Amino acid sequence: MIKYKILIIEDEKRIREELNEYLENVGYETATVIDFSRILTIVKEVSPDLILLDLNLPYIDGYTIHREIKKLSDIPIIMVTSRDTEMDELMSMSLGADDFITKPYNLQILMARIEAVLKRVYSSERDNFLSYHGMKLNVASGTIEYQSKEQILTKNELKILYFLIKHKGSIVSREQMMEYLWSADLFVDDNTLSVNITRLRKKLEQLGISNLIETRRGMGYILP
Amino acid sequence: MNFYTFFREKFTYLFFNLVLALLFAVIFWKMTVHIGIMILFYLFWFGPLLLYYILSYIKKKNYYQNIVRFQAQLDQKYLLPELLVRPSFLEGQIIYDTIADTYKQMHEHVNVYKREQIAYREYIEAWVHEIKTPLAATRITLQNQGMDAGVFDELDKIEQYIEQVLYFARSSDVSQDYIIRAFPIQEVVNKVAKRNARSFIYQKIRLEMNELHEIVYSDVKWVEFILNQIVGNALKYSKSNQGVIKIYTIKRDNQIQLHIEDNGIGIPEKDLFRVFNKGFTGENGRKYSQSTGMGLYLCNRLAEKLNLGISINSKKNVGTNVQLIFPQSKVLLIES
């Protein structure tokens, strides 16, 4: 899987550094702008896949930067701001921002936004597939393939499997799983999650993969 | 002012004149003055007098009747001086000048407070935006250090209180910063659901919601704030593990009702009609603490400004149902 590169344009030092660390931890390549008089040159040098742009910057305001970047390239931009009126949002979107998020953002939501924008802009054949131990998950069509057999997944099941594969090798708690589902507009409760996991296991078994999703009592699930 | 009241006021003077005229008549009669001269004399006396009264009556009648009429018609009575024209007679001019001056002074006086209120509101807005940056930094730092959920819950609360301050400032009369546009109600409901995701998940409260297809006209941000307060309350007063919050819409002739229903502790009947009052916490607020009595008060205030209806039904130990009513006729929205 390719690593997307995200450029963080943010003047608040701590936010910049911590966000940088966080994005690296979840598996993105990152770059930051420190010298705000050279934003455009840096954008050219780094050539990121996505830009997180704070609207409130020294030297030039975010809207101008945004306009200049859009002249140069089609790099998707998510605007970040602490101004939160409808007016600010409309203004950003009408300028062609790909998304808009207000501080203090919930990181869960920020991640969902980043993923959504990247998927929308770069959805290529390659990204639509995740594979795990010979099993192929087709995100676009919502199916899993294993040894030339196929199963259709529901939206919930697809998201659950996607999240588990993304976090393969580490335990995912039920709460984390639910938070992820909620961030994707799937408002499931505890019971529904159990039901979905059971169904997902059944479908995997029908493909001939058994015991793929392990339960760790009191902790959550894991794909080993 | 009419003819009768006008002349009644002049009665003493006229009466005095009449008595005097009578006295003269007696004197003239004693002096055997010719009747023609007497008539001429009285004509010169009373002619101009009556003519003056009649002319001034006509002039003043127009002016004062206008004042009375304007005053009756005006919604904001203090605007009267704006409608008046400076009259041509002295007495009216004096009154007009005095009123105009008072009005101007009052206007300046009110403006001082208006400016102060605007400055205060702007400061609150600026402050709220400023504090968001350190809050965002705190959040990410803690996330990177793998803090436990409790800290984030507290951060969520801080943010909610800050947001309340912001919307309180925005709900004041001088503020006009909302934008009415059409938006799908689902959009806002989803946002609010996501904002409260952690509470739903960790308290194991179920969210029951069908697809909401309705389009409503309002300000998205304000509605989001109102809805967030209502859902926040529903969560606060729900029982963990068995709580269910239902969100659904009902379409009526010229309105769409958004219902938020919980099966929580409910509100005692004696408190129900006061929940929208400022600072009212009631029995539940005292029991469950952390109630400032500002949430619903603000909801009501903002809803009023947006021309939305808000009402609440509840039964103790059964649950609470809050409905937000969006009027559907566009005329209503443009009004006010």
From TrEMBL, chain B:
Q: Which GO terms describe its molecular function?
A: ATP binding; phosphoprotein phosphatase activity; phosphorelay sensor kinase activity
Report the main location listed first in the record: membrane
Membrane topology of the entry: Multi-pass membrane protein
One Gene Ontology BP term is: cellular response to phosphate starvation
State whether keyword Cell membrane applies.
yes
Query: Where does this polypeptide localize?
Result: Cell membrane
UniProt keywords, alphabetically? ATP-binding, Cell membrane, Kinase, Membrane, Nucleotide-binding, Transferase, Transmembrane, Transmembrane helix, Two-component regulatory system
Q: Know the name of this protein?
A: histidine kinase
Q: Which organism is it from?
A: Polycladospora coralii
> What are the leading ranks of the lineage?
Bacteria, Bacillati, Bacillota, Bacilli, Bacillales
